[in-house]
Amino acid sequence: MLEPKKHGYFSLISLTLVIAFFLIGGGAAFLIHRTYSARQLITSTQKADIPIEPSAEKSVEINRRIEAFSTPSIGAGVEAEPAELALSADDINTLVANSPTLAGKAYFKIENDQVMVQSAVPLDAVPGFSGRYLNGNFSLKVAVENGLLAITPTSISTTDGQQIPPEVEGAILQALKTQNLNQMVNSDPRVQAWLKNITDIQVQDGNLVIKRR
Asked: What residue intervals traverse the membrane (predicted)?
């Protein structure tokens, strides 16, 4: 069993990784809506150039804030941990860049009330897409609904600015929304334990803000 101090840390990292790996569901979506337009517009034999910005020093600072947020204070005289944690796009990108699994596959921006993700996910595991990459820009809404993590894709664009036909975008978004990813995420015991103390997740002032009880 994970130690309490590390439990919240790993669950929070899971949240970040889940947002990125949500894009892999796009590969599965093509099994349902495998159209020539989607294949040509969003997948390619060439991997999109995804920025990688590793920073060991910044990673230490982010991890310190995450642990302060996730670890309950015990005993008198102990400074209370913050009731909310704000992660900027740079913070999330630092976490991704320091992950051997995700580095070079996803890059985050935060605009308005959306989390924007630029992806370059290999689709070798998807039948019919071996040797191709899912290259696209995805807009996601992230929230806590009824105590569960909810990630909803709202729009898709190509990494090179090409127009995606509305019917193709709609089909892919619908396929993504019908995936069981949210259910899979919320069935993770670490995420369940972490979410018990989380009251809200929202985009605010250019940050992904996570609030706890």
From this structure: 12-32
Q: How far apart are CA 90 and CA 201, in angstroms?
A: 18
Cα–Cα distance measured from residue 123 to residue 28, given in angstroms and rounded to the nearest whole number: 9
Question: In the predicted model, what is the mean pLDDT of the chain?
Answer: 77
* DSSP notation for 63-122: HHHHHHHHSPP-STTPPPPPSEEEEEHHHHHHHHHT-TTTTTTEEEEEETTEEEEEEEEE
Say if pTM beats, i.e. exceeds, 0.70: yes
Q: Count other Cβ atoms within 10 Å, centred on residue 82.
A: 12
State residue 127 phi and psi, 5-degree precision: -55, 130
HSE-up (13 A, CA, CB side) for residue 107: 14
Contacts 24+ apart (CB under 8 A), 200-204: 200/143, 200/144, 201/15, 201/142, 201/143, 201/144, 201/149, 202/113, 202/142, 202/143, 203/110, 203/112, 203/113, 203/114, 203/115, 203/142, 204/86
Q: What gap in Å lies between CA 124 and CA 105, rounded to an integer?
A: 14
Domain that holds residue 105: 4-212
Count structural domains, the chain. Answer: 1
pLDDT tens digits, residue range 124-167?
A: 877 777 888 888 888 888 888 888 888 888 888 888 777 777 87
Q: Which two tokens stand for residue 28?
A: 């599965």
